[in-house]
Task: inverse folding
């Protein structure tokens, strides 16, 4: 019989069992990456399933695009955790697991007997990863958190307002969920190394708000880095310039960054302003350009508006200045589906329906990764996992 371990043989996390009691985006995003590394990720779902199953268009109920693209390569076990017999099964599953990941509220976990103190009694080697909205030691402990809320609380809409039209806006992607999800992945990998050395597990908290705030401030602590300065002086001037945006050309848009001294000299001589480069100190060093960031970016904008996109792509590339087209989302998908890129691929379900999916982008030479199989239907693997992990039949 083919098992998860044999299917993933040779992959970095082959043989690692992860019990995944997460929903929505951050947790599923992280555990899908761990599944791509070869872990046997078992997604625990209640009878109603992960809420993301119903988001977006469907080819079949419960299999929306957000769910499909966050849960590939996993197995789904459907249990009513409110039933005493299900709790016993989960306790045994934790005993057979290396890692338990959850973003359920702490009170609910304790009520269900899925808290750290309970599960570690079943398995002292268990790595218990709790995905919190806010740090347990902080004033917002226990409060719910969603991407929009966290974006707002760490100041991203305010930064957008400073850089754009004065109106706060969220970034149009789940940047907090997925950024913190990457922290979850590296945390689990490090914890697995420690587990192998110490032969024991531990409780780990990954707080969404504090982690995302730290991530954002890596760019924007700015002058507040120096403790004598007021925190209001924080912010990265280059990133906050209203002119840091795609540039309009005669017939479209272009993305370029004139960044180093060499870039600036090459650009200014290319557009016939070599004399300005020679005499205007604003352009001649990173420090001076940062002081006058709006003026120097406005200069680039005015020059790029004089020619077409194709012309600039060629001229700037020839001058060794970083440049790229500015595609719409459909154009991006088409380009990434090409054989040369291979980021987007097509696959079929058992009924022959076609889907687009995302492939792992990091290239491993000896043990190459591959996109996991189709995301599981609700409870698709309940009997299989309970038999394989615990040698028991489904309790319900």
Result:
């Amino acid at each position: 019989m083919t098992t998860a371990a044999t299917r993933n043989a040779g992959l970095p996390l082959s043989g690692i069992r992860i019990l995944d009691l997460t929903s929505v985006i951050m947790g599923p995003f992280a555990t899908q990456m761990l599944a791509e590394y070869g872990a046997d990720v078992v997604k625990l779902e209640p009878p109603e399933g992960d809420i993301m199953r119903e988001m977006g268009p469907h080819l079949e109920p419960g299999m929306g695009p957000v769910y499909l693209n966050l849960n590939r390569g996993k197995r789904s076990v459907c249990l009513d955790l409110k039933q005493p017999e299900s709790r016993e099964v989960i306790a045994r599953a934790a005993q057979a697991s290396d890692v338990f990941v959850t973003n359920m509220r702490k009170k609910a976990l304790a009520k269900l007997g899925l808290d750290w103190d309970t599960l570690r009694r079943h398995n002292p080697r268990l790595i218990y990863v709790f995905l919190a909205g806010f740090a347990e030691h902080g004033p917002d402990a226990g409060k719910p958190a969603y991407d929009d809320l966290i974006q707002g609380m760490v100041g991203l809409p305010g930064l957008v307002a400073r850089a754009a039209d004065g109106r706060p806006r969220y970034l149009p992607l789940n940047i907090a969920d997925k950024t913190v999800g990457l922290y979850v992945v590296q945390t689990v990998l490090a914890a697995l190394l420690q587990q192998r050395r110490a032969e024991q597990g531990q409780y780990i908290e990954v707080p969404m708000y504090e982690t995302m705030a730290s991530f954002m401030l890596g760019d924007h602590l700015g002058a507040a880095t120096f403790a004598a300065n007021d925190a209001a002086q924080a912010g990265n001037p280059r990133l906050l310039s209203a002119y840091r945006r795609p540039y309009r050309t005669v017939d479209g848009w272009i993305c370029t960054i004139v960044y180093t001294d060499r870039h600036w000299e090459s650009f200014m001589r290319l557009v016939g302003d070599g004399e300005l480069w020679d005499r205007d100190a604003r352009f001649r060093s990173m420090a001076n350009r940062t002081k006058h960031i709006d003026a120097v970016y406005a200069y680039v904008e005015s020059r790029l508006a004089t020619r077409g996109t194709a012309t600039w792509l060629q001229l700037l590339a020839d001058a060794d200045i970083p440049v790229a087209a500015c595609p719409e989302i459909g154009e991006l998908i088409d380009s990434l589906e090409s054989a040369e890129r291979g980021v987007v691929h097509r696959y079929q379900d058992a009924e022959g329906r076609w889907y687009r999916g995302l492939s792992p982008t990091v290239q491993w030479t000896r043990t190459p990764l591959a996109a996991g199989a189709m995301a599981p239907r609700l409870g698709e693997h309940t009997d299989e996992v309970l038999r394989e992990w615990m040698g028991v039949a489904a309790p319900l």
The longest strand covers residues 40-45.
